[in-house]
Amino acid sequence: MAAAEEDPAVFTSTALPSDPRLMATVTNAYLGTRVYRDILHVNGVYNGAVGDTHRADIPSPVSVRMMAPSMDVLAETFTLNTRTGTFIHVLQSTDYTAMHQLYAHHSLVHLMAFSITIRRSAHTTHPITIHLQTPFVLKSQDLDLNQGPDFQGAHYVYGQTLVPEVEGGPRPTVHMLWTPVPQALILHEEEQERSWEFLTAVAESKEDVKRSYSQGLDLIAAGSLHPSHAHAWSMLWRGCCIDLDGPLPLRQALYGCLYYLLSAIPPQGNPGFLFHGISPGGLSNGSQGEDYWGHVFWDQDTWMFPNILLFYPEAARAILEYRIRMLGGALRNAQEQGYQGAKFPWESAATGREVCPEEIYGAQEIHVTGDVLMAFEQYYYTTQDQKLFREDGGWNLVGAVAQYWCSRMVWSQEEQCYHIKGVMPPDEYHHQVDNSVYTNVVAQQSLNFAADVARDFFIPVPEEWVDCAKKIKVPFDEERKYHPEYDGYSPGELVKQADVVLLGFPLLHPMSSEVRRNDLEMYEPVTELDGPAMTWSMFAVGWLELKEVQRAQSQLNKCFSNITEPFKIWVENSDGTGAVNFLTGMGGFLQAVLFGYTGFRITRSSLRFSPALPDDINKLNVTGISYLGNKLEFTITREEIRIKVTTSPRDPLASPLEAVLEESGQRFLLHEGQSVSFPTVTGWIQK
């Protein structure tokens, strides 16, 4: 049992990974870097035209490493503490302990900081010197940098990005203030212990950067800069956690995935924060030629978003607001391809225009438009936030997507149904195919959702939406009882990644258990083993749905070959190629637990549950599930489900929730602060 006592949320090693791309990342919603990397990135600040646009590299003053002056170090450790969002490097010798803490402040997102503390051992009296190694150079290939006057002891630099994404597009200016870093720190003989604090502030105006830096200095003076950051993380974990009584590697993987995903979301209680989406490798990556240049894909909406939504709907809303702000670009994309409505780009950056460097994806991988709308649908059913749709631009986006799908379909006289031709499905090994089943179903779902919202708002539903949704072709093999991936797909053809299996989840396309099983069995053996990391999570969800828990677990276990040591950084492909800090894979893995083990499904009228736990997991505890303004805690064992409402809406008119069991029809009213429990069966939560 000794291993169980190890904290699954703290990753410690005596050595760093040999590949610097696999270093821990420290990011918040606005700033991000990899530990010991000489550059940092700013949310939404890109440089370069169209397919060349990438996250602008900004020289990083926090890239500092402690070095001991002589060979007197007995021990050295490197730790990522996901509970406090802090990277810690410790040097230990007979004479002293030196500790370096680095973090991107979670709630004061314009600040990154590090501190160094030296404490002498009882028997020593001589001065102690720690050298600081930094690759910091004031130059950038992406910004026209200028030095300004010092401010409150900090150096000041500012610069505008060089090339806009599209002609006349934004060219933001970045302003940075930082505490100068000396070559060495000395603990004098009369001092027992001393800490030095180093602050970096980044913003897009001179006023904002000065205000942020001054705020940081005030917190340092009060001794509360790092405590306020750690407190923000502790509040974040209090509102959302997945833990289980099970294998340590699984618990560590869950904490790692949650840490990297939560690092990327806007801080709580800051609704005005302008969020620019989440790229597959997060803010720490995305320089030119790396991690898809920091562009935003369906990875955000399909793979990361559902986890964020169930825990932090306010952050989920910020992701949708990014898509709403990009609507102008999406309208232009559709127009340029000869269609109506809005076509979201395969790769998005600062304008919503297509910035994929290879034309084929932007032209053919059109399912992304439906994926964006699926996120809006999940959000609407989970929150009933009508304001987003009525007042904040959501309805315009929904209507424009419906219009796009109608214009993208052609009527087949022969088959008497609508076709969508010439597409690339999620399985990118195939292109220029007709009637990709995933694309057609996601289009159908977009149209049905648009019609539902229109009815809720008493807006007349265009006849065309209903007709196209009803009559679109959904390829199905009546003989073999499975969904072919597209017209003309031959069983046994190699598939790059999860595609048809996504019909069952997250699309919730109606089908019998027999068809669901056939889809899983048809595609599991022909899916690329070294393909993208999120694939096997979706096979796991499918098998869990059919209550084949061991088969599900064997799929989920494949994901562990994408997790690197010691900081649990994911790689896109298990052979180490592709993006690093691959949040997409982490998002899929979290969904396998959050929607797989629990059986959670977001529907128009309820949050369904139908748990299935593998043999090596005795108990699952999920804290902070958000549903219709309530916060819920679920504790699930093989025998029992316990549900507790920890917070309910302050609105006196809000209806309370109830749990309903499917087979018996039993109902349990859910009151704030009280727990209800019942046998582990299928049921749902509703108003």
UniProtKB/TrEMBL annotation:
Domain Glycoside hydrolase family 65 central catalytic, first and last residues per copy: 285-490
GO MF, one example: protein-glucosylgalactosylhydroxylysine glucosidase activity
Keywords: Glycosidase, Hydrolase
All residue ranges annotated as the Glycoside hydrolase family 65 C-terminal domain in the record: 601-647
Protein name: Protein-glucosylgalactosylhydroxylysine glucosidase
Gene Ontology, cellular component aspect: cytosol
This enzyme's EC code(s): 3.2.1.107
Functional description taken from the UniProt entry: Catalyzes the hydrolysis of glucose from the disaccharide unit linked to hydroxylysine residues of collagen and collagen-like proteins.
Catalytic activity entry: (5R)-5-O-[alpha-D-glucosyl-(1->2)-beta-D-galactosyl]-5-hydroxy-L-lysyl-[collagen] + H2O = (5R)-5-O-(beta-D-galactosyl)-5-hydroxy-L-lysyl-[collagen] + D-glucose
GO biological processes: carbohydrate metabolic process
Class of the enzyme per the UniProt entry, highest EC level: hydrolase
Organism: Galbula dea
Leader sequence residues: none
